[in-house]
């Protein structure tokens, strides 16, 4: 057993907070093992690993000054069998989600919204799997994503493999992405519809407008196709220079939640989600990652945050999967539901014993 595995197992058995994560395409894993069960909050004065909800200010920080920090090489999983789950769903789930989408499309056609993201959750029965084993399977299956397992006794175990960066900061240099649209990977290439192109442009325009108040020298790339596991997305990279250190927190407050997980206009989209989604997202579509320090490189004033997509909350016998999609005026309710079914396979693939 590695030191990380021993530490994660100990903290989990003692109900002490921890996070175990690996950055995209990295061969290193990082563990922060908190030595008490308190909840700490992120600020410009501390560093650690932040776990933030979709809404509100109840972000949790595993603060490094109250934790043991371990950095180790990822040991490859031996004899991991490729598993493709059955693409099945309940008809009542399909009808309920399609109704949400239809209401969203109507609100957009009524000019109440420009775009909104609607989501659903799905319960999956699972066998016993330790947090470390779960992380290993995530990393072995989705090495190009940000893979993590997070635990705090106040919120339980969360895990995921997210393809989407929220914000990256190195000193005053800021990077982010505009990501929208989802298709199954096709080795023969991807053709994006006008609906998907427009959806991604809405996200790009919103991010640009939000950053202009706190950044200079903004540059935005042309949109390109990004592969993430068995899916592809439409993506642009955005870079700029922060006016000051304090501007970073202002950017987060301005951007989160982004149109990629919420909608435009933001306040109207939030009200629509609260009225029609039917459940509390909690940490799904929040953000998470390194806060004010890069532990792999031991670098200060560096933050690397990701959107909490392709994630689940895990209990002893079941996992709650969270899946959603962006809705515009051209959305087709049945196609959007099938998109969530495709996305659900990401987590289902690693839940097989």
Would you write up a description of this structure?
With 353 residues, the chain is an alpha+beta fold. Helix content is 27%, strand content 35%. It has 7 helices and 20 strands. The chain has helices spanning 3-13, 91-109, 131-141, 194-212, 247-255, 266-276, 333-348, and strands at residues 18-22, 28-34, 48-52, 60-63, 67-73, 115-125, 146-152, 156-162, 165-170, 173-184, 215-220, 224-228, 231-242, 263-264, 287-291, 293-294, 299-300, 302-307, 311-314, 318-327. The chain has a 9-stranded antiparallel beta sheet, sandwiched between helices. Strands 3, 4, 9, 10, 11, 12, 13, 15 and 18 form a 9-stranded antiparallel beta sheet that branches. It has a two-stranded antiparallel sheet with strand order 16-17. Helix 2 packs across helix 7 (333-348). The longest helix is centred in the first third of the chain and has 19 residues, at 91-109. It is globular, with a radius of gyration of 19 Å. The two termini are 20 Å apart. The mean pLDDT is 92.
């Amino acid at each position: 057993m590695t030191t990380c595995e021993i530490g994660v197992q100990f903290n989990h058995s003692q109900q002490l907070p921890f996070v175990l994560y690996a950055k995209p395409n990295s061969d290193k894993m990082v563990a922060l093992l908190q030595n008490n069960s308190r909840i700490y909050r992120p600020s410009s004065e501390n560093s650690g690993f932040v776990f933030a909800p979709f809404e509100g200010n109840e972000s949790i920080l595993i603060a490094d000054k109250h934790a043991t920090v371990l950095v180790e090489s990822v040991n490859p999983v031996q004899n991991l069998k490729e598993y493709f789950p059955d693409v099945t769903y309940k008809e009542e789930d399909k009808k309920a989600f399609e109704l949400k989408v239809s209401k969203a499309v109507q609100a957009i056609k009524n000019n109440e919204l420009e775009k909104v993201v609607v989501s659903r959750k799905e319960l999956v029965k699972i066998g016993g799997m330790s947090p470390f084993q779960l992380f290993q399977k995530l990393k072995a299956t989705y090495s190009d994503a940000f893979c993590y397992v997070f635990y705090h006794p106040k919120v339980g175990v969360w895990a995921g493999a997210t393809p989407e960066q929220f914000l990256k900061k190195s000193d005053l240099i800021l990077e982010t992405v505009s990501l929208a649209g989802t298709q199954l990977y096709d080795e023969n290439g991807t053709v994006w519809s006008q609906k998907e192109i427009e959806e991604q442009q809405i996200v790009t325009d919103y991010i640009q407008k939000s950053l202009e108040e706190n950044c200079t020298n903004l540059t935005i790339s042309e949109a390109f196709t990004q592969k993430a596991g068995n899916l592809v997305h439409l993506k642009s990279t955005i870079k700029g220079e922060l006016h000051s250190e304090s501007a970073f927190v202002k950017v987060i407050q301005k951007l989160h939640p982004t149109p990629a997980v919420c909608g435009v206009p933001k306040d109207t989209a939030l009200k629509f989600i609260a009225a029609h989604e039917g459940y509390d997202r909690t940490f799904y579509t929040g953000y998470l990652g390194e806060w004010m320090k890069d532990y792999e490189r031991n670098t200060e004033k560096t933050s690397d945050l990701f959107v909490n997509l392709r994630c689940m909350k895990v209990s002893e016998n079941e996992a709650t999967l969270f899946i959603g999609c962006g809705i515009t005026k051209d959305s087709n309710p049945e196609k959007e539901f099938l998109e969530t079914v495709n996305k659900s396979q990401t987590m289902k693939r690693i839940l097989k014993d």
